[in-house]
Design brief:
alpha+beta, Peptide Deformylase, 5 helices, binds nickel (II) ion
């Protein structure tokens, strides 16, 4: 079975039952051009059961949809929360994250997004970041990340500010992506 990360999405062969579950998860994730994807999320003030339920739901949806990251914005909740999974076995939640870009080294690679299905675009990102914040229980967490993990959290952090990978790619790649998205918008 192949299992690679393409953009922000794990690609693998899925059996029909698993594929049906993936589609059910995707149906609960806001899709471009939903205007909520352009809005700025507000900080979380209370670390309560509502927050823990939200994080549990996001982890579940991300894994069911075969994603490697998901922001609360993408489930229509404008709070500064995202989950990410740098390796398949582990999912981390970040609440009220801060992101420090470290060094000048940058790399361009293709990204995808669970809210912009079927499209990948090249995005230049810095290769090393420090991510700090709290987990869903309010505990302080800090991660030094490189490579794919650094890319994932930059993408998810952008969602909290209403930014999309389409804003960070080349004008040419953006045009191509928009052309690919347009027919599906008509059919929806
Ligand atoms: Ni995304």
């Amino acid at each position: 079975m192949s299992d690679e990360v393409e953009g922000q999405v794990r690609t693998e062969e899925l059996d029909p039952e698993r594929e049906a579950r993936r589609q059910l998860a995707l149906a609960q994730i806001r899709q471009y051009p939903d205007p909520v994807l352009r809005m700025e999320a507000r900080p979380v003030e209370e670390f309560d059961d509502d927050l823990r339920r939200l994080v549990a739901r996001m982890k579940d949806l991300m894994q069911e949809a075969n994603g490697v990251g998901l922001a609360a914005t993408q489930v229509g909740v404008l709070r500064r929360v995202f989950v990410f999974s740098p390796e398949e076995e582990r999912v981390h939640a970040l609440v009220n994250p801060s992101l420090e870009l470290r060094g000048d080294e940058k790399e361009t690679d293709d990204e995808g997004c669970l809210s912009i299905q079927g499209v990948t675009v090249p995005v230049e990102r810095v290769t090393a970041v420090r991510l700090q914040g709290r987990d869903e229980d309010g505990k302080e967490v800090s991660y030094d990340l490189e490579g794919m993990a650094a890319r994932i959290v930059q993408h998810e952090y952008d969602h909290l500010d209403g930014k999309l990978m389409l804003d960070r790619t080349s004008p040419e790649a953006r045009r191509e992506a928009m052309a690919a998205l347009r027919p599906r918008l008509v059919l929806r």
